[in-house]
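hey m, so remember when u said the tokens were messed up on ur end? i reran from scratch. heres the input so u can diff it against urs
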Amino acid sequence: MSQTSPKITVLIPTFNRENYLLQCLDSILAQTLQPYQIIVVNDGSSDNTREAIKPYLPQIDYTEIEHQGKSAAMNCGLEMTKGDYLWIFDDDDVALPDALERFVTPLEEYPEYDFSFSTFYFTQSNAEDHSIGKIINEFTIPDLETRGPLIPLLEASYLCGAGLFARSSCYDKVGNFDPALIRTQDYEMAIRLTRHFRGIQVQGGPTFHYRQHQGLRGALTDRFQSDQIFRKWLQYDQITFKRLYKELTLDEYLPPGYSLANHQRQALLQRMAIMAGKLLIPEVTSDLDELKLLNDNRPFTKHEREIIAKLVVTTPWYREGKLFDSLSFQTGLNSVLFTDQDRMLEITEQISQMVQENKVQSKIELLECMLSFSEPKDIFDLMLSLIHNKEKGLFVS
């Protein structure tokens, strides 16, 4: 780290969180590396936030705006930012004491990186005094080496809220937060940043407590209880991903080093799987139609089998079901593969041998194995039929 202290701005948008905001601020003021600037944007709170925050005014830049939602509050804060680095921090979370120091260190040491990211704790909140309670578990970041940072991010956000810390100049390039998004604004922004800049993971574990509580969420235009949060995440992620479906180039769905000329089918499969994870039926159907038009009937590669098997077996984290019910898909796959008795005996014998050799040890590996015997066109037809016929397990958004 340089001899002069890095200039870090911490931006805290807040709305009706007087019970949590002061703990949040105390955790920022207690950092081992003190921030250069703390901005609190009050998004038209109707509680006692204005009075509660008065003792902190000498230490923070405080402003109030008419209630417009979190995106508008963060955009207001972006205009006030003076630091070279920016950490956007939720008003109900609590930072660990060395968070800022650990976030900024790799960016100071390696100027080729533009943002850093970390894990965090999912932590309970004590209902009596609203203090931080028991740690539930630690968020884990997926493997980014094999497929690069973007594909896992499109599947599900691992750059969650205050888990991302960036050079302020990054926001100058990618623009403001989308005011149309009442939820998942940080996810949409994280995708923009990842497409344009390089990130580096912070070492040493979590940097903050992501508080779990029962309070109301959202702006006044779309206020909801905590038990509706997954449905709301899905609702606003679908807005984002309908747009991304049109904006992202097909090669962005490939791992680093892969060319679209040689891996167009894999790119289409990956995009289809990501859109299925967001339960976007028209986009999935369009990709399946395009896959059929490719007329590429080479056997599926290992990566392609992994994409399909994961899509079928894994339930999207929104907890709202999935497009392809495992049982329905398995039944359809059996009918495609086992066209006659001899074929069935041949395939089952080979699979049994692989099981005995411990090459197949899980449901997803079994499905990958079966896909290796299938014709791609048959699989695409099966998926389309499951969608069109609204088979058991199909989620209709």
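this time it looks ok to me. The domain at 8-235 is CATH 3.90.550.10 (Spore Coat Polysaccharide Biosynthesis Protein SpsA; Chain A). if urs says something different then somethings off w ur setup not the seq
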